[in-house]
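Trying the structure run again after the queue cleared.
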Amino acid sequence: MTSTETSGSGDLARTLDLLWDSGPRPSRGPKPGLTLDRIVEAAIEVADSEGLAAVTMRRVATQLGTGTMSLYRYLPGKAELLDVMLDRVQQPVAEPDLNGDWRGALEAMAHRGLALFRRHPWLVEVNQTRPVLGPSAVEGMELFLTAIRPMGLPDRELISVVILIDGYVGSAARTQLFAQEAERKTGLTNQEFWDAQAPRLEVAMASGRYPVMSSLDDDSFDATFDHFDFGLQRILDGLEHYVAQRKKHGAR
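Done. C-alpha cells:
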C-alpha cells in the first residue's frame, strides 16, 4: 500500500458544493433512485473490498448497475468522489460526558481512529495533508476540541494536540496494515517470516558482535504486546505532565 491519491486534487469549489449540499441538482433525467449518497456508498464498498485503485467511475457504476455517464450528472469525477468518501467514512461519534477527562477522551479517540483505518484500509493510501473540510470533518473537530478544551492550553496548542494524536494513529495504522499486506503478498505469516531468519540470527547473536541484542529477554519481541497502547499511554503521560506544569506556573 502506497499513497496513490491526494485529497483536494479535484475541482475544489465543486467538491465543497457536494460536501455541503449547496451545488446544483442533476437536471437531465437521472436514473430513478440514483443519488449522490448511493454513489458514495457504492464507492466505499468497492474501496473496502478491492482497494482504492479499483474505485473508478466505471467500476462504481457497475456496482450500482447503471451506466458510467449517469454518475457524471452528480459529480465531476473520481477526485471529487474521493473527498466525499473521506468525509463520509469519518462521520464522528458523539462523546459521552467525560466530566473534563481529556485524557480519557484522547485515548478513546485514538482507539476509534485506529479502528477506522482497520474498517477502511484504503485510507492509508490517501495523502490527506490538505483535507477538504466537509460536515463530518468539521463536526469531528468540534467534538474533539470540546473534549480536550479542559486541558486549558492555548488554542494553537490544542490544535497541535490534535495533530499529534492524528499523526500517531496514522503511523501505527500504516505499520499494522502494511504488515497484513506483506503477509498477503508473500504468502508467509509473520511467524513464518521470522522463523526463516532465526538460524542466521542465532549465529549472529552468538558471535559476540551484538551484546545488547543478544542479552534481550526471550519475550522482547512478543507479538501479543500492545505497542499501540503502550506508545499512546506514554504520549498521554507527556501531555499530562505538560498540562500540570503549565498550570503550576500559571502559563497561558
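The longest helix spans residues 155-186. Worth checking whether this holds up in the mutant runs.
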